[in-house]
């Protein structure tokens, strides 16, 4: 489990991560979503002790990363596909890490099989495609069978098979009870795998909720309605307190009233309904809605009094 408490990073007066207080729970896949420069990588680097917070703190199972007794069994991370020596083979790369961390050779074979790299174990990493390097990075992260798994943009460069494989893998890791934090720009991908979603924009927390909750809380969900006289129904629905927008094709998009209430209102107005469909916005719609106008950089004045820091 990862716990952040007012976690903040300031680079030369600019806030990159602003007062994040969050918990990444075991047993679930938590999606970490945000546009370029939102602060996802900076947050992950602070979790992993590669960067010092300017303010606040972050712990893994109650400890700072540097105080963890056997870090490989606590947390495994994939941050950069290129953070490897290209002259080494995949097997040599994993052997070096395993030797340094007291991990058995059997576990190397398991990870090579798990990540689909069995046939290229003896090839230099420099000859690998981006997708193969991603797989190797994930194998490295999982080598110590860690309780917490952090994957930064793991879907980059994966082909269709790789995407399916990674979806299944992240879900399985969560089912095994691990805390799985996955960052991505790909909202559709996050929708497929995440149980919970953390959304950042310009370092600020925009949302931290279960996927279902996120969709329900959105003002964007509505009921699509069509009947024999849409104009007449619109008048009736507005009287009941609904907000109604008429689309270009004439159908009504009804907010703040449920399907049953809309159906009863149509019955009252003696109108035959042709369509009554609840429309949940996609994660992409939600993201636009949640970040709109809320992502401006906040003033750094207060934080700057507590110091500025470079990495
Ligand atoms: N070492 C650094 N020095 C100065 N500014 C930095 C440094 N690292 C990150 N930043 C700034 O912090 C902000 C957040 O960057 P970060 O890489 O964490 O975002 P991100 O959400 O991971 O984006 P991306 O998906 O593009 O990698 C950006 O404005 C970035 O320019």
Biggest sheet layout: 6 strands, mixed
**According to CATH, what is the class of the largest domain?**
Alpha Beta
Approximate strand percentage:
25-35%
Number of structurally distinct domains: 2
Shape: elongated
SS element count, helices: 12
Low-confidence stretches: 294-311
CATH topology of the largest domain: Rossmann fold
InterPro entries: AAA+_ATPase, ABC_transporter-like_ATP-bd, ABC_transporter-like_CS, P-loop_NTPase
Keywords: ATP-binding, Nucleotide-binding, Transport
GO molecular function, one term: ATP binding
Family: Belongs to the ABC transporter superfamily.
Keywords:
311 residues; 12 helices; ABC_transporter-like_CS; alpha/beta; ABC_transporter-like_ATP-bd; ATP binding; binds adenosine-5'-triphosphate; disordered C terminus; elongated; Alpha-Beta Plaits
Structure, described:
The chain is of the alpha/beta class. The protein has 2 domains: 2-216 and 287-304, 3-Layer(aba) Sandwich (Rossmann fold), CATH 3.40.50; 222-279, Alpha-Beta Plaits. Helix content is 35%, strand content 26%. A 6-stranded mixed β-sheet has the order 5-6-7-3-8-9, with helices on both faces. A 4-stranded antiparallel β-sheet has the order 11-12-10-13, covered by helices on one side. The two termini are 25 Å apart. Belongs to the ABC transporter superfamily. Pfam families: ABC_tran.
């Amino acid at each position: 489990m990862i716990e952040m408490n007012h976690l903040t990073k300031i680079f030369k007066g600019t806030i990159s991560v602003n007062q994040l207080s969050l918990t990444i729970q075991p047993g679930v896949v938590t999606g970490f979503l945000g546009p370029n420069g939102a602060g996802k990588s900076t947050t992950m680097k602070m979790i992993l002790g590669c960067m010092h917070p300017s303010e606040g703190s972050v712990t893994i199972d109650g400890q700072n990363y540097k105080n963890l007794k056997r870090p490989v069994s606590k947390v495994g991370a994939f941050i950069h596909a290129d953070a490897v020596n290209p002259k080494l083979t995949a097997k040599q790369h994993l052997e070096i890490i395993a030797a340094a961390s007291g991990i058995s050779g059997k576990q190397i074979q398991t990870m090579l099989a798990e990540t689909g790299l069995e046939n290229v174990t003896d090839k230099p990493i420099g000859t690998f495609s981006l997708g193969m390097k991603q797989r190797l990075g994930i194998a490295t992260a999982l080598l110590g069978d860690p309780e917490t798994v952090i994957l930064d943009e793991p879907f980059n460069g994966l082909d269709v098979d790789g995407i399916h494989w990674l979806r299944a893998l992240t879900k399985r890791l969560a089912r095994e009870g691990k805390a799985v934090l996955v960052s991505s720009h790909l909202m559709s991908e996050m929708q497929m795998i995440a149980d919970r979603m953390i959304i950042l924009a310009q370092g600020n927390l925009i949302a931290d909720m279960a996927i279902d909750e996120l969709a329900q809380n959105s003002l964007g969900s509505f009921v699509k309605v069509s009947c024999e006289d849409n104009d007449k129904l619109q008048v009736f629905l507005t009287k009941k307190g609904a907000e109604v927008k008429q689309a270009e094709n004439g159908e009504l998009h009804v907010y703040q009233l449920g399907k049953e209430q809309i159906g009863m209102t149509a019955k009252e107005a003696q109108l035959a309904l042709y369509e009554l469909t609840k429309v949940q916005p996609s994660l992409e719609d939600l993201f636009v809605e949640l970040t709109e106008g809320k992502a401006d950089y906040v003033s750094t004045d207060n934080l700057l009094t507590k110091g500025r820091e470079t990495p």
